[in-house]
Specification:
21% strand; 169 residues; alpha+beta
C-alpha cells in the first residue's frame, strides 16, 4: 500500500479484521479506522473498576447513543481507548462500531462513514463478477462499455459507480 503511494485517511473494515494487532498497526500508521465489533467482544467502560463485560450488555444513555462512549477493549494496552458507537441498522440488527478517531462525537457522521464500507463491498463484488465474465450482466445493465478488455471493464465500472454516487473518483 505504501509502496504504491495510495493516499488514504481511513480504513473501513469488517469485524473479522478487528484484531488488536491490526488496529495497533493502523494506529502506528497514524490512520483512522472504523470497524464493527462482534457483540460478544469484552470491553471495559469503568476504567478497570469492574470486570470486562460483553459489548452488547452495556447500558446506553441518550447522550451515549448520540455521541458514543470511550471504552477499553480486552487485551489492548491499558492506556489504549477507542470510541465506540451503537448503530441500529434495523429493528433486529445492531452494529457496535469502534474507531480510533476519539474526536468523533456524532452518530450520523459515523453512520455516513460506515456506509462507505458497504458501497466498497458492493463495488468489489460487482467489479470481480464483471472481470470474471468479461463484463457480464452486472455491468451490461449500465450500458455498453467501449471495449471488453479487463482494464477497460474496470474503468467502465468505476465510472458508473461514480455516477451512482460512490465518491471514489
Amino acid at each position: 500500500m505504501f509502496h504504491k503511494k495510495l493516499p488514504f485517511k481511513r480504513v473501513l473494515m469488517d469485524s473479522w479484521y478487528a484484531t488488536q494487532r491490526l488496529m495497533a498497526l493502523i494506529d502506528n500508521w497514524e490512520k483512522i479506522y472504523y470497524c464493527p465489533l462482534k457483540k460478544n467482544r469484552l470491553v471495559d467502560e469503568t476504567g478497570g473498576n469492574e470486570k470486562y463485560q460483553r459489548i452488547d450488555s452495556l447500558s446506553w444513555s441518550e447522550l451515549d447513543v448520540k455521541q458514543g462512549k470511550l471504552i477499553k477493549l480486552k487485551k489492548f494496552p491499558d492506556q489504549k481507548k477507542v470510541k465506540w458507537f451503537r448503530v441500529t441498522i434495523s429493528t433486529n440488527r445492531t452494529e457496535y462500531i469502534a474507531t480510533n478517531e476519539l474526536t468523533a462525537s456524532d452518530i450520523e457522521q459515523v453512520k455516513s462513514t460506515c456506509s462507505y464500507r458497504w458501497k466498497i463491498e458492493e463495488f468489489h463484488r460487482e467489479l470481480k463478477q464483471a472481470m470474471q465474465r468479461g463484463l457480464g450482466e452486472a455491468a451490461r445493465s449500465w450500458g455498453s462499455p467501449p471495449e471488453t478488455k479487463p482494464v477497460y471493464c474496470g474503468a467502465f465500472i468505476v465510472s458508473r459507480l461514480c455516477r451512482k454516487g460512490l465518491n471514489i473518483c
